[in-house]
Amino acid sequence: MSKTVLPTRPPTSSETTLRDKFAESIAGQSDLMDKLGQQLITLELAIPGLYATVLKFTRGDAATATRNQWLYLAFGCWFLALVLTLASLVPRHWRVDPDILRQDPAQKSDVLGLEDFFYQSARYKCWWLIPACLFFLLGVLCAALLVL
Predict the structure, then answer these.
(1) Residue 144: CA atoms inside 13 Å, Cβ hemisphere, count?
(2) DSSP string covering 98-113
């Protein structure tokens, strides 16, 4: 072992700010997924209503859409997207040890560290929201094919 003394200094204010912002970004990931879910719910409820309104205005009194697979598929995809988005917002219980910052990956444990909790929570919500977005877009495409 080397007996040299390493020089140290207290962190500068910019280094402290960067560390604080990094910690805030880790802690805020789950909140970002919640905000995305809330925005998706707004879109998933508004688009089918707007779609029906546009059909009414463009077709007048004969505002009935042909019942075919595109209509059922469009509304089915929008409903599935809404269900997946709502599932992402349902609170989940996580086992967290507040004394551990990061759990050792070699140790197989159900208990998460603090940093692991924020990553796992955001990842869990992301796995619900990505398919929700895809089903929503598929519903929009099906609705567009219905009009053609």
Answers:
(1) 6
(2) TT-SS--TTS--SPBP
- CA separation for the pair 4, 84 (Å, rounded): 58
What's the rounded Cα separation, in Å, for the pair 6 and 66? 78
Question: Which amino acid, one-letter code, is at 55?
Answer: L
pLDDT tens readout for residues 91-143 = 989 888 888 888 877 777 788 888 888 889 999 999 999 999 999 999 999 98
Question: Structure tokens of 33?
Answer: 């997924």
Q: Model-level pTM? A: 0.79
Element holding 133 (H helix, E strand): helix 114-147
Question: CB of 77 within 8 A of CB of 138?
Answer: yes
Tokens 């917002």 correspond to 89
Phi-psi region of 60 (alpha: psi -120 to 50; beta: other; left: phi over 0): left
Burial string for 14-24 (b: 16+ CB within 10 Å, else e) reads eeeeeeeeeee
Structure tokens at 129: 């929201």
Q: Which tens digit of pLDDT belongs to each residue from 5-31?
A: 878 888 899 988 988 888 888 888 889
Cβ contact 64:16 at 8 Å: no
